[in-house]
């Protein structure tokens, strides 16, 4: 009877983890036995939050790819300066490469892949600031642009529409508001992605759990459920003789 009970418990563990043990499943990073790496947006687990961000970036990249074949850019903010009009769309298309890499890095616990996604977010932030500065230069000439010779010599449909309707002040105000929101969100997304990279590089350990049927289940004391940067992870205190499982497999 005891053997049968142990077999049933082991079968339930396999069904729950999808593998031969609680720490080796393909989704081990997101499994209940994985130490929590913190939260983002107040209540979302950090890994889930960055994964959602990467998924949203993939969708945006697909839309930007479709936008490349359209006459007007509707998926980007600004666009008053014709020299930087398509720059954000081009960077958005690049997300179709870096976002899937980041998403796979989260679930496969590969910090270098997640770091590539973080670097993409940094570049995206720099491009956002560059486009904002360029658009401000164009908006300085908004008043009177519709009736000026430059409107004929250097056509700028968006600036012409704002100038001809007398909405220059309103356009500048809402442009500042929109840029502030976009800038804050991009900075925050880059921050939480960098935080996840830093924690993944510390090789977070898995909990050794016992089932409710085990007499050891009542003797679990002092388990650390969250990441502690000051304490570190066990692998950091074991010396250079330790290896990641992936490194051992590649070394064969």
Tell me briefly what this model is:
The chain is mainly alpha-helical and 252 residues long. 56% of the residues lie in helices and 2% in strands. It has helices at 2-17, 46-67, 87-108, 111-139, 150-153, 157-164, 168-201, 245-250, and strands at 39-40, 44-45.
List its salient traits.
two-stranded antiparallel sheet; 2% strand; mainly alpha; 252 residues; elongated
How are the strands of the biggest sheet laid out side by side? 1-2
Largest sheet: 2 strands, antiparallel
How many helices? The count is 8
**How would you sum up the global shape?**
elongated
* Topology as a string of helices (H) and strands (E): HEEHHHHHHH
Structural class estimated from helices and strands: mainly alpha
What would the average pLDDT be, to the nearest integer? 77
Q: Quick one: how many beta strands?
A: 2
Query: End-to-end distance, in Å?
Result: 41 Å
* Percentage of residues in strands: under 5%
Query: What Rg, in angstroms, do the CA atoms define?
Result: 26 Å
Low-confidence stretches: 16-29
Helix content: 55-70%
Descriptive notes:
The protein is an all-alpha fold and 252 residues long. 56% of the residues lie in helices and 2% in strands. Strands 1-2 form a two-stranded antiparallel ribbon. The two termini are 41 Å apart.
């Amino acid at each position: 009877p005891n053997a049968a009970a142990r077999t049933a418990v082991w079968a339930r563990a396999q069904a729950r983890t999808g593998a031969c043990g609680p720490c080796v499943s393909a989704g081990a990073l997101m499994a209940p036995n994985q130490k929590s790496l913190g939260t983002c947006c107040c209540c979302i687990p950090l890994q889930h939050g960055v994964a959602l961000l990467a998924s949203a970036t993939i969708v945006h990249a697909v839309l930007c790819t479709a936008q490349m074949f359209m006459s007007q850019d509707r998926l980007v903010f600004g666009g008053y300066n014709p020299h930087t009009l398509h720059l954000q769309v081009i960077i958005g298309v690049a997300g179709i490469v870096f976002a899937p890499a980041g998403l796979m890095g989260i679930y496969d616990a590969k910090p270098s892949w997640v770091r590539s996604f973080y670097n993409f977010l940094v570049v995206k932030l720099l491009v956002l600031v560059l486009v904002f500065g360029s658009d401000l230069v164009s908006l300085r000439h908004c008043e009177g642009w519709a009736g000026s010779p430059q409107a004929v010599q250097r056509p700028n449909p968006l600036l012409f529409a704002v100038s001809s309707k007398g909405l220059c002040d309103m356009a500048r105000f809402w442009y500042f508001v929109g840029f502030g929101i976009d800038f804050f969100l991009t900075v925050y997304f880059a921050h939480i992605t960098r935080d996840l990279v830093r924690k993944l590089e510390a090789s977070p350990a898995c909990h050794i759990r016992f089932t409710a049927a085990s007499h050891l289940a009542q003797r679990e004391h002092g388990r650390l459920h969250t990441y502690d940067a000051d304490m570190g992870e066990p692998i950091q205190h074991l010396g250079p003789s330790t290896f990641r499982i992936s490194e051992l497999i590649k070394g064969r």
